[in-house]
Amino acid sequence: MKNKHLIFKKIINKETSTKIVYQDEIVTAFEDISPKAPIHILIIPNTFIKTSNDINEKNKNIFAHMFYIAVKVAKDKKISEDGYKIIINCNKNGGQEINYLHMHLVGGEKLKALY
Ligand code: 5GP
Fold first, then answer.
1. Is residue 67 included in any domain, yes or no?
2. 5, 40, 65, 102: the active-site residue
3. pLDDT per residue as tens, the chain (115 positions)
4. Quick check: is 40 in a domain?
5. What is residue 95's DSSP assignment?
6. Has residue 48 been placed in a domain?
7. Whose CA is nearest to atom 12 of ligand 1?
8. CATH code (residue 67)
9. How far, CA to CA in Å, does 9 sit from each of 19, 48, 79, 109, 112?
10. How far is the centre of ligand 1, averaged over its atoms, from the C-alpha of 69 (Å)?
11. Residue span of the structural domain in which 89 resides
12. Phi and psi dihedrals of 68, rounded to 5?
């Protein structure tokens, strides 16, 4: 599918069977379709932001809220004490496949170090 980011809009609007684990007026958090760890949640803004390059003075509070909710979900999922990673991929070199800003919250097992 060319416009893969449209699926995220559908998830926000509850037009798919994707399990939403948290939603408020600013963000939506849901299970990744292809989990890379026992816990793999994506956190996205409800209003479209394409990449982390598009975070600016006006919308930076949305980004802060995404981070806050990622940590809240980690606590709710009881992975916060053992630990987790929060990852944002940006564009081609960062491995961003879906052009809709999203944070990956991954945990539930010992994760490989990137560096
Ligand atoms: P990226 O590589 O863009 O940072 O990550 C995209 C993520 O979205 C991947 O982990 C992929 O498994 C997930 N994903 C792709 N399509 C869907 C979908 O239709 N539903 C859900 N829940 N996750 C998706």
1. yes
2. 102
3. 457 789 999 999 999 999 999 999 999 999 999 999 999 999 999 999 999 999 999 999 999 999 999 999 999 999 999 999 999 999 999 999 999 999 999 999 999 998 7
4. no
5. T
6. no
7. 34
8. 3.30.428.10
9. 14, 8, 27, 30, 31
10. 18
11. 6-34+55-107
12. -60, -45
In a domain, 114, yes or no: no
3-state helix, strand, coil in the chain (%, to 5): 25, 20, 50
Does 104 qualify as catalytic in the annotation? Answer: no
Cα of 89 to ligand 1 centre, how many Å? 11
> pTM for the complete prediction?
0.97
- 90 within ligand 1 shell (Cβ under 6 A): no
- Cβ of 56 less than 6 Å from ligand 1: no
Number of domains into which the chain is organized: 1
Q: Which atom of ligand 1 is nearest to the CA of 18?
A: 22
CA distance 114 to 100: 23
